[in-house]
Amino acid sequence: MSTQQKPIHSGFGAITTACEVRRDIELSGKVAIVTGGYSGIGLETARVLHAAGAKVVVPARDLRRAIAATSSMSDIEIQPMDLMDQASVDAFANGFLASDRPLHILVNSAGIMASPLARDSRGYESQFSTNHLGHFQLAVRLWPALRRAGGAGIVSVSSWGHRHSPIVFDDPNFERRPYDRWLAYGQSKTGNILLAVAADERGKSDNIRAFSLHPGGIVGTGLEKHLTKEELRKAGVIDDQGQPVLDPSRGFKTVEQGAATSVWCATSLQLSGLGGVYCENCDIAPIVGAADEANRTSEAIRQVGSRPLGVMPYAVDPAAAARLWTLSEQLTGASLACQREFSNS
Fold first, then answer.
1. In whole angstroms, how far apart are CA 104 and each of 15, 47, 143, 328, 343?
2. pLDDT tens digits, one per residue of 308-328
């Protein structure tokens, strides 16, 4: 595991907002793509990067909703894309590459959580397909534009929920085991972290660095749509009156606070020379210790504010990252070798 996976004491914290992070950041002339950039923390991330001067592109499954949500931002670019649709991801990437623009920042913020069993057209489980495979394919397909930037960052929004499950390499799509929506979510979020580890290893020679993060628990973004009020109350994220609990010290944040770590990973000079690390509260997270890992239970994991934060060792394991990269290439047909041929043609 990376020796870089330890806090650097950034000076920010759980209450920091995205606007506070970018206060001294100038992004004029930079291009950023933010998936999920029309709702929740993705929208706030897009808004703050735009305010810092970046040209922001938002790929969207729901174009009408995306246009309405981003209407206050001048010259933002909305393009169609569905992360569960392989052809749609390719079409978006091809369109961007055809523009010959560099890509300085790729924020993989879109996602689904704890959804009922569903599969994409290839038969892949929907959370693994949307949260991991779609973003893997997008990052690989956009690699020539990331290289063209001469210094780029890939930011993957993961979750504390990665503690639910490592990657189950023998059955990632729940074809031979009973489906559990939380195991599926956890596996996909572990995938986000391992993508950052593997992408950083492959990109750092071209000054492409990758990061993953836990944004915090934020109610009202739509991510929780598959959960009942009782489930949310048990998790401690809403009170008995159904109102969101706001307590950054326990990980329960506003959208503005939730987007802060995404913006920090995408822009902070404090991360210069670093990469492949998992972050939280605008800092690099510690690795979960053996005692905490041994004591975790499924019920405790769902109590978001009940345990210390940190990243599970299996989520920052370079061997697992390399194995997942190979599996993802096989499942999506996207590979860096093909993209290098594209960029040299």
1. 27, 16, 11, 23, 16
2. 689 999 999 999 999 999 999
Strands 283-284 and 277-280: antiparallel
| Two structure tokens written together for 335 | 């590979």
Q: Where are the alpha helices (DSSP H) in 159-271?
A: 181-203, 229-235, 255-258, 260-267
* Rounded Cα–Cα distance for residues 35 and 40 (Å): 11
Classify the C-alpha dihedral 258-58-335-154 as positive or negative: negative
Asked whether the beta carbons of 66 and 112 are under 8 A apart, the reply is no
Residues with active-site annotation: 185
Q: Span 18-344: which CATH code? A: 3.40.50.720
Pairing of strands 77-80, 105-108: unpaired
Nearest to 262 by CA among 307, 221, 229, 295: 221
pTM attached to this predicted model = 0.92
